[in-house]
Write a structure and sequence with these properties.
The complex is a heterodimer of chains A (368) and B (398). Chain A has 368 residues and is α+β, with helices and mostly antiparallel strands. Chain A has helices spanning 6-22, 25-34, 40-48, 71-79, 86-99, 102-113, 223-252, 266-295, 299-327, 329-332, 339-350, 356-367, and strands at 118-121, 137-140, 146-156, 163-170, 173-180, 189-192, 201-211, 256-257, 260-261. Chain A starts with 5 loop residues before the first helix and ends with a helix. With 398 residues, chain B is of the alpha+beta class. Chain B is 42% helix and 16% strand. The radius of gyration of chain B is 22 Å and the shape is globular. Chain B has three domains: 3-121, Acyl-CoA dehydrogenase/oxidase, N-terminal domain (Butyryl-Coa Dehydrogenase, subunit A, domain 1); 127-248, Butyryl-CoA Dehydrogenase, subunit A, domain 2 (Beta Barrel); 266-392, Butyryl-CoA Dehydrogenase, subunit A, domain 3. A four-stranded mixed β-sheet of chain B has the order 1-4-5-8. Chain B has a four-stranded antiparallel β-sheet with strand order 2-3-7-6, with no helix packed on it. Classes of the chains: A alpha+beta (368), B alpha+beta (398).
Chain lengths: 368, 398
């Protein structure tokens, strides 16, 4: 059962309007071309709207809403391919809310709500989606001094981040470490080239970085964070799927070949209906997952709902992007065709927190 | 009814169904009212309907004067839910109970109601439908069966096809052309409650791909039916037919209730995957089979969440009619995929067919072959995609 509140409906309308205005497709291309790590004016506008504090508890200067309440915002951003550090910051805030000490929360959550950028470093060069398949270690010397050594990959917006939450193995157990970006050595953060050009992705290399005890988070919840990431990216994907469908329908209704609009050919029409069905199903799974996230306490139930949503979104969005290129014919092969922006977004998203095959593997164990 | 009364009624119904559910017969039962192919199957199901009616569990909200229960609709809904939950057989007179019956109650004369309603409920009179024609599969408005008035009778000529239960039916809801005049093809159509006993009406069973019989082609050769069996006025047949389709599709209420088919649930397929074996092991243990099963579960669950979202107007999105208009497409395709997969779960035994040696008597093989009735009947999947493309996405006509 899906539940959707009036507050969420209002947020959806506001976010749609905002993203349409701020991020028409020309603006997306300008962002790519400029290559800047951050559009500070836009960021400040989003901060002023209160979006960075939606999920942050009121005592830390936020609105104190549930993560699920941000789903309409991320969906609206995905629809317009608007990429800002909000994804990274919202997820990092979840890490702190779920795992941080009172001091850590006190120090960072108000700043995040006010627009300081936070991010999460989970993945590594091996490309594994399992959070514990990592080589970054939190070591402890005989005298009790801790150091962090290892390399992280796909750290979103690390170049502009003020704080980075890093996963590391302490012996056999996974821990979260909080790194203040100002304390990192020069060159620790390097830009990566990723397939979605709207994203700002970085590697993080650490060698014997000293870690104080107050930089280690007391909580060790990782699955909840993985699922939070999946939920937000699925929201973006749902929006993106709607966006690429609009590009396809627009072209099918204007492009003529053999003196007929190409949308009149069933070879184009029927697969476009399949994309519509994929989009409708993805959106339904998304809001179902958001409902379960908010209402359900059993983590296995949440996991199942969120993975189903991410699975559906990964499969359907990447297929829609793929068909989007093909249906544009020769134009589809060019950089100028907007379908490529969506396909490249779809591919990036597909490989965050597990693609559809990975999700099905996990679901198979959860379901039977 | 308050919640306590509802709960109490529900447990009474459940108890009755558990006590009275007929034992599985020695032969394979059909799974929908469109698949009733032998006298043995028909008699078994008709007896079941009689029993359900006599217990007061059919037509519960229909007026008592005509044989109904005169009770609130919610009681029938509870019965329907419990019938599905208890997996009891379906009741065969679906066309009478859920299409023709509510239509007669809605617009029939007092005499019509006295004459038809009780026997619909008791399965004394089976009803069939004469809409589709051999040359006009998806184009009902173009019906060509002729009805020519002659005194106080109409003389019918032509043929109808896909007449489910045609061999057993006493009455047919018939759409026929009384005129070729008028502004459009719809204007010349009229609607009849035609007696199948009239001389010159010959339902001829059609053998299906399953090798079974289930519906007929019905030939009319100078068949004379009384003029007073017309429902509505001459030339109003199209609007009466559309009203019938509203009942048929459940778009409006008033149906007598009861199951019209055995529900196939994704859990049945999961359960089958545990029982069926491939290469000596339960199919569910095979990783590739598991992955296919997860895909099907996702499709089934996806359909359910789509239905749930469609009930929230704020989440309607760019194409608010997409979910409702694709229901038939999605559910029929899912059923085809599920039953096809069910056959594949059986390893080499997937090659078997209806027989004692086959898993579950071969019902899965038969179900798969029958599943095409869903993906073809009522507008093929391909036509559905044209409709969705044109009416929902706004693409140009093919």
């Amino acid at each position: 059962m899906i539940r959707f509140s009036e507050e969420q409906a209002m947020l959806l309308d506001t976010a749609r309007e905002f993203c349409q205005k701020q991020s028409p497709i020309d603006a997306v291309r300008q962002v790519i071309q400029a290559g800047q790590p951050l559009d500070e004016t836009l960021w400040q506008t989003m901060v002023d709207l209160g979006w960075l504090g939606v999920t942050i508890p009121e005592i830390y200067g936020g609105l104190g809403l549930d993560l699920a309440d941000t789903v309409p915002i991320f969906e609206a951003m995905g629809r317009q391919l608007l990429a800002t550090p909000m994804l990274a910051s919202t997820l990092a805030a979840q890490v702190l809310i779920t795992n941080g000490s009172d001091d850590q929360k006190n120090q960072w959550l108000p700043k995040i709500a006010a627009g300081q950028i936070a991010t999460v470093a989970l993945s590594e060069a091996n490309g594994s989606w399992d959070p514990d398949q990592i080589a970054t270690h939190l070591n402890q010397s005989a005298s009790g001094e801790m150091t962090l050594t290892g390399s992280k990959a796909f750290v979103l917006d690390a170049g502009v981040a003020d704080v980075i939450l890093v996963s590391a193995l302490q012996g056999d157990s996974l821990r979260w470490c909080l790194l203040d970006a100002s304390e990192l050595p020069d060159g620790a953060i390097q830009r990566e080239v990723v397939i979605d050009e709207t994203r700002r992705s970085y590697s993080l290399s650490l060698s014997d970085l000293p870690i104080r005890a107050d930089q280690v988070l007391p909580g060790t919840a990782f699955k909840k964070i993985e699922l939070a990431g999946m939920l937000l990216i699925t929201a973006e994907m749902s929006g993106g799927l709607e966006g690429v469908l609009a590009v396809i329908v627009g072209y099918l209704n204007t492009r003529k070949q053999f003196e007929r609009l190409i949308g009149s050919y069933q070879a184009m029409k029927h697969p476009t209906v399949d994309i519509l069905m994929g989009s409708e199903m993805t959106r339904s799974y998304l809001y179902h997952a958001a409902t379960v996230w908010r209402d359900e306490t059993d983590l296995a139930v949440v996991e199942s709902a969120v993975r189903m949503a991410k699975c559906c979104a990964s499969e359907q969005f990447s297929e829609a992007g793929d068909r989007g290129i093909q249906f544009h014919g020769g134009f589809g092969f060019t950089y100028e065709c907007d379908a490529q922006l969506f396909l490249r977004r779809a591919l990036w998203s597909q490989y965050q927190f597990g693609d559809e095959r990975h999700q099905r593997q996990k679901l198979s164990a959860l379901l039977f | 009814m308050n919640e306590n009364e509802i709960d109490e009624f529900r447990s009474d119904v459940r108890a009755w169904l558990q006590d009275n559910k007929p034992a599985a017969p020695s032969f394979l039962l059909p799974e929908t009212f469109m698949e009733v192919g032998t006298d043995q199957q028909f008699e078994f199901l008709r007896r079941w309907q009689q029993k359900v009616y006599e217990a007061g569990y059919l037509g519960m909200s229909w007026p008592e004067t005509y044989g109904g229960g005169g009770q609130p609709q919610i009681m029938q809904e509870i019965v329907n839910q419990e019938m599905a939950a208890q997996r009891v057989p379906f009741v065969p007179n679906t066309i009478g109970l859920n299409w023709a019956g509510p239509l007669i109650l809605d617009m029939g004369t007092e005499a019509d109601k006295q004459r038809y309603i009780k026997n619909i409920l008791s399965a004394e009179d089976i009803w069939c439908q004469g809409f589709s024609e051999p040359d006009h599969g998806s184009d009902l408005g173009n019906a060509q069966v002729r009805a020519v008035k002659d005194g106080d009778e109409y003389v019918i000529n032509g043929s109808k096809i896909w007449t489910s239960l045609g061999s057993y039916a006493k009455y047919m809801i018939l759409i026929a052309r009384t005129s070729n005049e008028g502004p459009n093809k719809y204007a010349g159509l009229s609607f009849f409650l035609a007696p199948m006993t009239a001389h010159g009406i010959a339902p001829t069973p059609i053998k299906k791909l399953t090798g079974e019989y289930g519906f007929c082609q019905t030939y009319f050769t100078d068949a004379r039916i009384p003029a007073d069996c017309m429902l509505g006025n001459e030339g109003e047949g199209w609007s009466v037919a559309m009203k019938t389709l509203m009942f048929e599709r459940g778009a409006v209420g008033g149906q007598a209730g009861g199951l019209s088919m055995m529900d196939l649930n994704i859990n049945d397929i999961v359960e089958l995957a545990r029982r069926a074996t491939r290469n000596g092991r339960p199919a569910i243990e095979d990783p590739l089979t598991r992955d296919e099963l997860v895909k099907l579960v996702l499709e089934a669950k996806g359909n359910a969440v789509m239905g749930s979202r469609a009930r929230i107007p704020a989440l309607g999105g760019t194409y608010p009619t997409a979910v409702a208009m694709s229901g038939k497409l999605r559910s029929s395709e899912l059923k085809r995929k599920m039953t096809r997969f069910a056959v594949s779960l059986q390893g080499a035994n997937g090659a078997r067919y209806i027989s004692e040696d086959a898993l579950d008597g071969g019902r899965w093989q038969r179900s798969y072959l029958n599943s095409f009735s869903g993906t073809i009947g009522g507008g093929t999947t391909q036509i559905q995609k044209n409709i969705l493309g044109e009416r929902v996405l706004g693409l140009p006509k093919s």
